[in-house]
Amino acid sequence: MRPAKTGVLGVALGLALAAGALMAPARAAAPGAAKSSGTLEQVRQRGILRCGVNTGLPGFGAPDSQGEWTGLDVDICRAVAAAVLGDARKVQFIPLSGRQRFSSLLSGDIDLLSRNTTWTLSRDVQGMDFAPPVYYDGQAFMVRRSFNARSVRELNGATICVQQGTTTELNLADYFQSTGMSYKPLAIEDLGEVVAAFFSGRCDAYTTDASALAATRAAQTVSADDYLILPELISKEPLAPAVRKGDEQWSDIVRWTVFALIEAEERGVTKANVRDNLGSAAPGVQRLLGVRTGAGLGKSLGLDDDWAVRIVSQVGNYGEVFERNVGRNSVLRLDRGLNALWNQGGLMYAMPIR
After folding, report:
1. Torsion angles phi and psi, residue 213, rounded to 5
2. Is the N or C terminus of the chain more exposed, i.e. has fewer CB atoms within 10 Å?
3. Where are the alpha helices (DSSP H) in 3-71?
4. Within a 10 A sphere around the Cβ of 20, how many other Cβ atoms?
5. Domain 5-136+239-344 class?
6. Cα 7 to chain center, whole Å?
7. Does the pLDDT of residue 5 top 90, yes or no?
8. pTM for this one?
9. CATH of region 139-235, choose from 3.40.50.2300, 3.40.50.720, 3.40.190.10, 3.40.50.450
10. Do domains 5-136+239-344 and 139-235 have the same CATH topology?
């Protein structure tokens, strides 16, 4: 879920006061290295990456029956920990509500926000830097099949459940105003209460990101076949990890961790074969895995040259992360769609690692 822009502007007021405490003096960097502002050092000294995640969204961020955190966003946290600390298990997962997530990041309570968060202009200029999107999504609507709606255009006059204080609420109002349709919003701040209201029949439809609708439906004890996610999307929702502005090196590390996951899939480097690929003759694979003579790409990030080897060997490539968490064989059963590689009809595209 996405808080309204006014919430972001509010937390931004405290940014100037917090910045001095968050950013330690830069350490000496190798020639050509990105400027450091402290987060990498803090994470290494602590020995744990503090990662803000969802309070419980299957497929993206939720504890399983043994209390183990799983999900696509969770695996992004683990990939960063593997790159920086050498161990994908060295993550403290901090569940955050939609309202808590930005203030927790800007205050320094977390090092990384990986919580199905939409990259928008207002957020980008108010204290946060975004890594590349890890899931391209859009806002959709779910209804009971018995409601007999097969299109959003059939929701005129419907009561619609939405989480209060989110841009989901804003998108909903914008859409109905632009189409000239009417609706009755049932806006509730607590996400669990929103979901309960929909499944108890207090509203005709529930709106949020399409992936979150699929996750919510999968988590219910009701029959998934009784609920339909309408096909139209009314917004663009590029979901991406975020870090605090002002720490260029940390931003680079998170950004290139995501690119490494995508590049590994494109190069055919998997969790199972990454060690075998250390002997690859392909220059692109050699650069990715840090064995290309003279490349020194890891050092330019403040890491060692086998940072990407650790990521892929411990977490897998992007395709593996997608499939086990949200793909066709997961509980969400989602197609790759826009999240396929760029050369397979999707938008997943890694900047060149060279």
Report:
1. -65, -45
2. C
3. 5-12, 15-22, 39-46
4. 8
5. alpha beta
6. 19
7. no
8. 0.84
9. 3.40.190.10
10. yes
